[in-house]
Automatic annotation (TrEMBL):
An MF annotation (GO) of this entry: transcription cis-regulatory region binding
Coiled coil: none
DNA-binding region: 44-63
InterPro entries from the UniProt entry: Homeodomain-like_sf (IPR009057), HTH-type_TetR-like_transc_reg (IPR050109), HTH_TetR (IPR001647), TetR_C_15 (IPR041669)
Organism: Hylemonella gracilis
Residue numbers spanned by region Disordered: 1-21
Name the record gives this protein: TetR/AcrR family transcriptional regulator
UniProt domain HTH tetR-type: residue ranges: 21-81
Keywords: DNA-binding, Transcription, Transcription regulation
Length: 210
């Protein structure tokens, strides 16, 4: 049996003019809508083009296949989440560590609350392979941001201990928000998940002394 080559998942070209940017934005919005309505396996470029109101030829000018569409969509969502957390960390730099924790937990929950149905499809159905996996690889970036913040706050602590604390924080927040997207999206809206996450992680940081 011969192995099929991995699908090309990079966009063919990036829009430069405002009209092209609007077209790509419409295509990506349509991709999100079709993913939610039909799921990853049934999503195809024809359905996306129809939903976006463009010809299939126009879509193929920018994206060669479904995988490239989904990878670009996920990449945008990941970039938005990373930027949201970065802003939260920057604004909480002068606060005690519990203030930083509150800001980061809230930022992560707010980001996942925007379109939980789409996040659910991405978490449950999109294959973790090739550049799709790269687009989903947000954990390391968020972990490094938390590590940098904690290290600046506690320069005298063992860096490996601080790195482990950052790993525990990021992993716990990600796991809680992802499970809530799948099993209890209402928890993202009511503030209940945020309160429980802070009750869990606040004492952990206090015991560690970070």
């Amino acid at each position: 049996m011969t192995n099929r080559p991995a699908p090309h998942v990079s966009p063919r070209k990036r829009p430069v003019q405002d009209r092209s940017k609007h077209t790509v934005q419409s295509i990506l919005e349509a991709t999100a809508q079709v993913l939610v309505a039909q799921g990853y396996e049934k999503t195809n470029t024809g359905a996306v083009a129809e939903r976006a109101g463009v010809s299939i030829g126009t879509l193929y000018q920018y994206y060669p296949n479904k995988q490239s569409l989904v990878a670009d969509l996920i990449g945008l969502h990941v970039a938005e989440l990373v930027e949201t957390v970065r802003i939260a960390l920057t604004r909480s730099r002068s606060l005690p560590v519990d203030g930083m924790l509150r800001a980061v937990v809230k930022a992560s929950i707010d980001a996942h609350r925007m379109n939980p149905a789409l996040h659910k499809v991405i978490i449950e159905q999109v294959p973790r392979e090739g550049k799709l996996a790269d687009a989903l690889g947000i954990s390391q970036r968020l972990g490094e941001m938390l590590f940098d913040d904690l290290r600046q706050r506690h320069a005298g602590l063992d860096p490996q201990r601080v790195r482990l604390a950052a790993f525990v924080l990021e992993t716990t927040i990600e796991a809680l928000t992802h499970r809530a997207v799948i099993e209890g999206p209402d928890w993202l809206k009511t503030g209940q998940l945020q309160r429980e996450a802070l009750a869990l992680l606040g004492p952990y940081l206090a015991v560690l002394g970070v």
